[in-house]
Design goal:
The chain folds into 3 domains: 7-14 and 35-138, Orthogonal Bundle (Recoverin, domain 1); 147-253, no CATH class; 266-367. Strands 1-4-5-6 form a 4-stranded antiparallel β-sheet. The chain has a two-stranded antiparallel sheet with strand order 2-3. It has 395 residues and is α+β, with helices and mostly antiparallel strands. The chain has 19 helices and 6 strands. It has helices at 7-17, 26-29, 37-44, 46-60, 70-84, 93-106, 117-137, 148-155, 159-170, 182-192, 205-216, 222-227, 232-252, 267-274, 276-289, 292-295, 300-314, 323-336, 346-366, and strands at 31-34, 67-68, 115-116, 140-145, 255-264, 369-376. This is EF-hand domain-containing protein. GO terms for molecular function: calcium ion binding. Residues 1-31 are annotated as: Disordered.
Length: 395
């Protein structure tokens, strides 16, 4: 029986095999919901998890002395990111902090820190359980996009009002002298369409080179597209033609997309604040885990670090992950008015955090933040993940 090389490999395999299964609409057959259940199954199988830890530790321990250095541990952290679908380290400031935090946690915050196999197992367990909890709260949907949904969109009643709204939104179709070229208008409109319309992320380099550019070549000649100013009728006609060509390309080369949706409306914070027992227990844990230097000198940084430790319980993203929520957190800290540099005792610290959480709740309740993310899962993944590879079977 075939054993998949990685968690994403298994998900891709499921998405591919969805084609041709009986029952349901095409979209239902072409998606896989990843909710962390497979990770939980692995963690519950102590023998399988132990084999995974032994196998991975041996692979990472290049010098064989039984401890992992920072340089040896880094590939494991990068593999965790790849398995989560995060951009590669160095590619995005919004996710780079995650890599640094994981390495710091594993090596006790020192660049010379080394990790024993027992520590590696404990840390890997914490990371996987955290990953599973996150996926249970915010499932990842793996979509296989083969052009069928896109054809349905173009042929259906949604196309014209959607196209009209996009062109109106970006201000195209003007008869002024500085009106954009037809090519610019069509490409800008394409960027506004999403997986909900059957379009994979057009900003992805692979999608742009292998799907969008070949489809563009089926429109008017390139020089005519560049020089011709866009009228409303031209835009409707050429966008529809481009989407049809993209659907044809997707039929030849289906694209696998990892889709997530997050809605931050403060309801998770409200639930936490309403559960005094849980809130007090969490505040105690955060205070005890706070370094001594932060207890003697208040700062925005230590408050943010403390809030990150409460993020899961409050259904909030970690600081740095969602800029819109970061802005809410920063404004809430200002509202509470914690004095920078002032020493804070335990009671003041807990009151400040509670007041900040309440301010975050009110702001998100008034102005919820909705984030939709689509990441193309390339086949094969660049720098394919090996951390979650199945350990070799022994006889």
């Amino acid at each position: 029986m075939e054993r998949s090389n990685s968690w994403f490999g298994r998900w891709r395999k499921k998405a591919r095999e969805g084609e041709g299964q009986g029952g349901g609409r095409p979209r239902d057959r072409e998606k896989v919901v990843v909710d962390g259940s497979e990770i939980r199954e692995l963690m519950e199988d102590r023998e399988a998890f132990g084999m995974l830890v032994d196998s991975k530790f041996r692979q990472l321990d290049a010098d064989g002395h039984g401890m992992l250095s920072v340089s040896e541990l880094r590939p494991a952290v990068e593999d965790i990111g790849a398995a989560l679908g995060l951009p590669a380290e160095g590619a995005s400031p919004n996710t780079d902090h995650i890599y640094s935090e994981v390495v710091s946690e594993l090596t006790h915050g020192t660049s010379q820190g080394e990790v024993s196999k027992a520590e590696f197992q404990e840390a890997l367990s914490d990371i996987l359980l955290g990953m599973a909890a996150g996926l249970k709260r915010d499932p990842l949907v793996i979509l296989r996009m083969d052009g069928e949904d896109l054809r349905d969109f173009v042929a259906g009643s949604r196309y014209e009002p959607t196209a009209a709204a996009i062109f109106s939104q970006v201000g195209f179709g003007s008869d002024s002298e500085d009106a954009s070229s037809l090519r610019q208008c069509v490409l800008a409109a394409l960027q506004k369409l999403t997986v909900d319309h059957g379009v994979p992320p057009a900003s992805d380099t692979w999608v742009a080179e292998n799907i969008v550019e070949p489809a563009l070549q089926q429109l008017l000649p390139a020089d005519q597209l560049e020089q011709q100013q866009a009228s409303r009728d031209d835009l409707f006609q050429q966008l529809k033609k481009l989407l049809g060509a993209i659907a044809d390309r997707l039929q030849e080369q289906p694209v696998i997309v990892a889709h997530t949706e997050n809605h931050y409306d403060g309801s998770g914070v409200k639930r936490l604040l309403a559960n005094k027992f849980e809130l007090d227990k969490l505040l105690d844990s955060v205070w005890k885990g706070l370094p001594a230097e932060h207890k003697s000198k208040a700062s925005k940084e230590y408050l943010i670090a403390a809030l990150d430790k409460m993020a899961d319980a409050a259904s909030l993203p970690y600081y740095g992950a969602v800029k819109e929520v970061d802005a809410v957190v920063e404004e809430s800290i200002k509202t509470v008015g914690v004095e920078e540099g002032k020493a804070a005792d335990e009671a003041e610290f807990k009151k400040s955090l509670t007041d900040i959480l309440r301010a975050i709740m009110l702001r998100l309740n008034d102005n919820p933040v909705f984030i939709s993310t689509d990441i193309v899962v390339h086949e094969p993944l660049s720098g394919s993940s090996t951390l979650f590879s199945s350990p070799p079977l022994t006889t």
